[in-house]
Design goal:
Helix content is 31%, strand content 22%. It is an alpha/beta fold. An eight-stranded mixed β-sheet has the order 1-8-7-2-3-5-4-6. Helix 4 packs across helix 5 and helix 6 crosses helix 7. The protein binds S-adenosylmethionine. The site of S-adenosylmethionine (SAM) has 19 residues, from loops.
């Protein structure tokens, strides 16, 4: 039975409950610092999608405050990660370099910037510009140059393609940026082993927890928003191993 621990609080506070050097993999999707940028653009996104993330209120920090928040997160991350532990952080492409700089300051070893390509993105403003269909992920290890890497002898490209989150996975409430389980499971299987402990300090709708539980890993999830937390807790509890 997978061991699941969830905290409904700010992740910097929540991570203080976790002892030093105990986490095998941090797999997380923090705010991308795009909220203000999107609000300033005349994209009509809010009208097109009621639960547009830019209107949700959790990605509203200005750039300097966001950097401070990411700095505090990485500081705690390196305290809780085991030596040789791994980390995947999803990020907007335009913030990748900023995030790598912060991570390296805390001693993380930068490995890869990869792409998640969505096969069926919403074709917003398709006659005006290129439809946004990619997000990036950044891969680090801590204190060693290599961590768990279960490639089973296959060549793994720095690129993964999946559909956007299917409706069937959304039945536990609406989160504007819920990621598909298939995407999270991919990293869980490659970068951790059975019974390892996976941490997601920005767990949103709990997709990482579902992927961890289904794959027989232990999970610690933290989410600041009460409603997202309630929905994520129900969703993870209702997941069978
Ligand atoms: C990009 S979403 C994560 C979505 C998630 N990957 C999923 O599949 O549902 C980021 C989440 O971080 C939460 N968040 C933002 N700041 C936080 C903080 N300081 N501590 C904990 N959670 C935070 C937001 O409420 C939001 O749900």
């Amino acid at each position: 039975m997978a061991d699941i621990t969830l905290y409904n609080e700010d992740c910097i506070k929540g991570m203080k409950h976790i002892p030093d050097e105990t986490i095998d993999l941090i797999l997380t999707d923090p705010p991308y610092n795009l909220g203000q940028f999107m609000q300033d653009r005349d994209t009509n996104l809010k009208k097109m999608r009621e639960n547009f993330f830019g209107a949700a209120g959790w990605d509203d920090l200005n750039f300097n405050d966001w950097k401070r928040c990411m700095n505090a997160f990485f500081q705690e991350a390196v305290r809780v990660l085991k030596k040789g532990g791994s980390m995947i952080v999803f990020m907007s492409i335009i913030k990748v370099e900023t995030l790598i700089n912060i991570a390296e300051k805390h001693g993380l070893y930068y490995k890869t910037t990869g792409i998640w390509h969505k096969l069926n993105p919403m074709p917003r403003n398709m006659n005006l510009h290129f439809v946004n269909s990619i997000e990036s992920w950044i891969y680090f290890t801590y204190n060693k140059k290599t961590g768990t890497f279960n490639n089973e002898g296959k060549v793994l490209h720095d690129f993964i393609e999946t559909s956007v989150t299917p409706n069937g996975e959304r039945r536990h409430g609406v989160h504007p940026t819920q990621k598909p389980e298939k995407l999270l499971s991919y990293f869980v299987q490659i970068l951790s082993n059975k019974a390892d402990i996976i941490l997601d300090p920005f767990m949103g709708s709990g997709s990482t927890g579902v992927a961890a539980k289904k794959n027989g890993r232990q999970f610690i999830g933290i989410e600041i928003n009460k409603l997202y937390f309630k929905n994520a807790s129900k969703r993870i509890a209702g997941t069978s191993i």
